[in-house]
Sequence to fold (228 residues):
Amino acid sequence: MALLTKDKSVVVPGEELASGMDYLPTNGTYRDGDKIVAARLGLLHIEGRLLKIIPFSGKYLPKRGDVIIAKVEDITLNGWRCYINSAYSALLNLRDASSEFIAKGADLTRYFTFGDYIVAGITNVTSQNIVDLTLKAPGLKKLGEGRIMHIDPNKMPRVIGKAGSMVNMIKEATDCRISVGQNGIIWIQGSPNNELVAVKSIEKISAESHVPGLTERIKKFLDKELKK
Fold:
């Protein structure tokens, strides 16, 4: 009854990850007899007794409770249709857009218009693959001017870090405001040079997410870039 590989190891389909019944398979893993086996190529993540694999690439699959960054693409009678870096369509309904009452027929561009970016929460994913969004929770809001970047959604856990440690390190080093969406969209606002350093740091995390010692390498990278 033991782990057969380490946390953050690169694993391949068919690789045995653990033996015995002490561990439980979740995303990207399955049980075969008394062993847990990898079902996909990716990075092993161990959370207590749970084993899951974060794939190296793939589309964002919306889940209830996710916090994402969305772009307003259309305005309807009932709210706003948004792009969320997914094959799914997302809707922000009038009742979920603001704590103030928005009457039907109001000029909705007063609140959000084409091209605006918002930090939104997912409240539901319907059987018709429609994603319902809300802004009625702390931290959910319209974003101002800033730089937008996209990375593979599967790399977002490494960009965020444990309890936000990685993204907070970048924020503090660059003095940038950074909002990250679980859908792989990131908003950055700061001085032009520091924004660029933040972008390069995040790109480095994305490219090297599977390599051990990532936090220390990013810290050294930030120190070097900010001294130029």
